[in-house]
Amino acid sequence: MAGPKHDGAAGTGFWEFSLKLYGRPKVAPACLRLQDRHRLDVNLILLCCYAGCAGYGAFTAAELRRADRAISAWRRQVVEPLRAARRALKSQPLRRADALRRRVLAAELEGEAVAQALLERWLKARGRRPTGIAAEDSAASLARYALFARPRLGRSGRADLDAILAAAASLAAR
Q: pLDDT tens digits for 40-88?
């Protein structure tokens, strides 16, 4: 996710949860480090947290692969090119370039919202109804995702996952 605010998918539980979680202290930088250093997908990280906090249970490795496939083409064809364009524009000192960067950022966030809508549809089609909130389900799903996506995160990557999980658990407790 490129930024903390966007109303494009307002009304969806996953998007609203993601905005709240992403806005918590330490979460956005941790997500971005996991994305940039380890090529983890922020939306899948957030999905793991949401599913556990919303009571959907833990994901299996096979389910996480299917969730990744549900958004991989969209991520590759839409979100990543927009992110690359926004980052390229960031280094341009011209005011017009900054205005364009803000418009590209808005498009990137809309792209992230679409990815989350695809994931939320996938989650609901999974067939499990929410039961009870279980922070350990978020942790188990996130550990499985990190393992299949990037087997060696190292100490800093694990610390970032822990920071995200702690923030998700505090949100779920509310």
A: 999 999 999 999 998 899 999 999 999 999 999 999 999 999 999 999 9
d(CA 144, CA 146): 6
Sign for the CA dihedral angle at 78, 33, 172, 169 comes to positive
Which are the contacts of 145, defined by CB distance < 8 A and separation ≥ 6? Answer: 40, 44, 45, 48, 59, 64
Q: Cβ distance 67 to 59 under 8 Å?
A: yes
Percent of the chain whose pLDDT exceeds 70:
90
> 169 to each of 53, 73, 127, 154, how far by Cα in Å?
7, 31, 24, 23
What lies within 8 Å, CB to CB, of 108 at 6+ separation is 2, 79, 82, 83, 86
pTM of the predicted protein model: 0.88
What's the DSSP call for residue 127?
A: -
